[in-house]
Amino acid sequence: IQTVIYDGAEGASMAVANEIRDIIKERQKSGKNAVLGLATGSTPVRLYRELIRMHRDEGLSFANVITFNLDEYYGLSGDHPESYRRFMQDQLFDHVDIPEANTHVPDGLVAREEVFASCSAYEEAINAAGGIDIQILGIGRTGHIGFNEPGSGPDSRTRLVTLDSLTRRDAARDFLGEQNVPRHAITMGVGTILDAKKVFLLAWGEAKAEVIAQAVEETPTDIIPASFLQSHANCVFNVDRSAASQLT
Ligand code: F6R
C-alpha cells in the first residue's frame, strides 16, 4: 500500500478524479471502455462532484465508461432513498452522459434462492467488461471495504453478507434509527476487489485514523479485511491528515 497524505479531502479527491479522467480519455482514443469500480457513502462525494464538474466544464464524456458498484443493501429497491442505486443516480449518474445500461449496482431485491446466481452473474459481468481498471474504496470503522465485514477472507467473492452492528449503528442516522437499517447486503468480495488493476482507498477524519493504521500496518488478517489490500500490487490510500494521524 502506498499512502499519500493530503491537507484535506478536496486535494485527495481531485487527484483521483484526474486519474479517472486520464484513463477515460486514453481509452476514448482507442475506442475502448474504461471500467470503474465505485463506492457510496460520504467519502467519495467530492470525487463525484469533481467528475461532474469535469463533464460540465471540460466536456469530459462518460459515454465509454462502465461502472460496477461495490454493494447494495439487501431488501431495498433501487428507488428507495437510502439505496446505493439511488445514491449513485443522485451523486453521479444523473449528471453525466453515462449510458444507463453501463451502470451496475447489485440488485437488492433479488429473491433469496436467486442470490447465488445473481452474484455469479455480477462477477461474470465484471469479467466480460474486461475487469475493473480503477476501484474506488472507502473504509468502515470495522475495517470493511465494500461490505466485507470482519471474517471476510481474501478469496471472498460477490455474495450476501450480514452487516456488523457497528456498521449498522454508523448508518442509523441515514435511516432515522438503527432498527430501520437493513441487516444484510450484497457486496463484491475482497477477492473481487483485489482483482482490480488499480485501487484507490479514500479516508477522511479522526474517526478513520485507527482503522487506517491497522489496515496499513498490521499483518493482514480477516479481523481487518482492508488489510488484505497490502497484497495488491497497485493500491494507493489517499487520506487526509486526520485519517493519517495514527500511522507510525
Ligand atoms: C460503500 C461501501 C462502504 C463505505 C464505508 C465508509 O459503498 O462499500 O465500505 O465505503 O462504509 O463509509 P463513509 O464514506 O460513509 O464513511
UniProtKB/TrEMBL annotation:
Keyword RNA-binding among record annotations: no
Coiled coil: none
Gene Ontology process terms (BP): carbohydrate metabolic process; N-acetylglucosamine catabolic process; N-acetylneuraminate catabolic process
Sequence similarity: Belongs to the glucosamine/galactosamine-6-phosphate isomerase family. NagB subfamily.
Record domain Glucosamine/galactosamine-6-phosphate isomerase: where: 12-232
Organism of this sequence: Rubellicoccus peritrichatus
Keywords: Carbohydrate metabolism, Hydrolase
Entry keyword Hydrolase: yes
Transmembrane segments: none
The protein's role, per its UniProt record: Catalyzes the reversible isomerization-deamination of glucosamine 6-phosphate (GlcN6P) to form fructose 6-phosphate (Fru6P) and ammonium ion.
The encoding gene: nagB
GO molecular function: glucosamine-6-phosphate deaminase activity
Official protein name in the record: Glucosamine-6-phosphate deaminase
UniProt-annotated catalytic positions: 71, 144, 149
UniProt superkingdom: Bacteria
